[in-house]
Amino acid sequence: MTTTTTSTTTSITPPAPSDHADRPAVRIFDTTLRDGEQSPGATLTQPEKLEIARMLESMNVDIIEAGFPIASDGDFESVRAIASEITRSVVCGLARSSPRDIERAGEAVRHAKRGRIHVFCATSKIHREHKLRKGREEIVALSVQSIKQARSYVDDVEFSPEDASRTELDFLEEITQAAIEAGATTINLPDTVGYATPEGYGLIFRHLMQKLPIIKDRGIILSTHCHNDLGMAVANSLAGVMNGARQIECTINGIGERAGNAALEEIVMALRTRSDHYQLRTHIDATRLYPASRMVSSLTGLTVQRNKAIVGQNAFAHESGIHQDGVLKYRETYEIMNPADVGIAKNELVLGKHSGRAALRDRISQLGYTLSDPQLEAIFIEFKKLADKKKEVFDEDVEALVDTQLEAQRETFELLTLQVTAGSNVLPTATLMIRDSSGEVRTDASVGDGPVDAIYSALARLTGIKATLLDFRIRSISRGKEAQGEVTVDLLHGDLKVSGRGLSTDILEAAARAYLAAINRIRSQSFRKREVSQYDAV
Ligand code: KIV
Ligand code: ZN
Predict the structure, then answer these.
(1) Are 505 and 378 contained in the same domain?
(2) pLDDT in tens, 378-408
């Protein structure tokens, strides 16, 4: 048996950061919408990005890196929309050391109450020689010129010597000094390829703090940015702060390029739970960590592994009898954090078919979403249909309804009907009707090796998009035999990998919806294809 025990009497997690107001604060720089969105398959639409940005602001993230404006018109518009709405967090746009990139980033954050431009230029020998084909002097000159240009748009400029952890220390010193003199106010030292060790990474910060008095004199913030290729992103980030860094770049659920970035929730809870050791604080409202994790997972389609620290399904579950016994007697025997402190609700309010608009609206807002009235109305209609099929509607179901509604905004193809014949000794056959964005209704039928194969063959013909099915996953998203089934698929179309998620109380319908969601992502990606990647040399 697995139990999740939550006691209301004792809070073992140390007091909220506000109670440690005397301690130095570490700024949390969230890059879920920029580096995080680079996870294969994790493409987000503008409304989805706005929802995540609102959630990040509500949890008191200091800086939100909203995107890479030069990458595409879609990226530019998303950064601009976030910059126009968010007021409490700094909104940042990324730029390579190129005049056009910086101009675009400057335009995108122009209306931000607090805007930042993040300029980067690769500095390691391997990047200098093989990617940029430039010498040290040229790289310093380019960086200085770029920082000065960025300062003509905003006062808050961050500079990153890309691949800093593999850059010679003397060159890192030289470029950091030059970047600060040119006007950079934050210096971020990325472990771009996740190569660093905590000791080695910490040493870089200590070295720069000792060698460059200008850092202290000008109140410059040093920042960590760690990738997780060796599973050490969080440990490396914490080593950075132990040696003088006062900003940590991270993402919700640790999503990001390859093995991902340092996970925000792990950083925040490590600093908080072990505040006796770190003697630092963050401004983050930890009770938003779990809702934020759920929102990012739901909108990106990237599921959180069960044993993921802080937010995984098993993070507070006790399987072993000895542990269960210990926890029931005195929770601190086996739990170092209280689930409630990270926002895992003890008594979740369950909605049903008699719940009205107000209750649903309230639940959606508790889950961290801020939707428009027409969106809420559309969700309410679907909620009523679901509540008729299922007696109890859990948070997971409500999130799925919101996700489907946000997803609908990128829909090119909409599933209208699905009929499947399957069983033993029959040829699996699927008949589908879909509507495309022009309103045209298309119908087709196909046979297959099984019912899912038949559905996917029919959909490939109906949409005219051929893709390879890389992965198919199915699970129940809430409790009970009437629970909704969630299907997640990964498709490969040319060199584009996309994920799609579908939900329904009928698993074959969920499978069809997942495939169609992925096809819709392929369509929207092809339309707003990124012309530039951050890895392209300038
Ligand atoms: O990993 C990296 O080096 C980056 C930079 C653009 C900061 O993401
Ligand atoms: Zn990165």
Answers:
(1) no
(2) 999 999 999 998 888 988 889 888 988 887 7
Can you tell me which residue has the tokens 């914490």? 238
Closest approach atom of ligand 1 to CA 162: 3
Q: Is 329 helix (H, G, I), strand (E, B) or coil?
A: helix
Rounded-to-integer distance, Cα 281 and Cα 186, Å: 19
Q: Which two tokens stand for residue 538?
A: 């300038």
- 383/281 same-domain check: no
Provide the 8-state DSSP code for 350: P
From the CA of 523, how far away is ligand 2's center (Å)? 27
Instruction: Tell me if 124 CB under 6 Å of ligand 1.
Output: no
Identify which of 160, 227, 533 to mutate to test ligand 1's pocket (most ligand atoms within 8 A of the CB).
Answer: 160
The DSSP output letter for 393 is B
Residue closest via CA to ligand 1's atom 8 equals: 35
Specify the CATH number for the domain of residue 521.
3.30.160.270
The whole-angstrom separation of Cα 531 and Cα 538 is 13
Q: Quick one: which H or E segment has residue 468?
A: strand 468-476
pLDDT, tens only, 159-175: 999 999 999 999 999 99
Domain count, the chain: 3
Choose the final residue of a domain: 256, 282, 300.
Answer: 300
Statement to judge: residues 375 and 462 lie in one domain: no
Q: Which ligand is nearest to the CA of 160?
A: 1
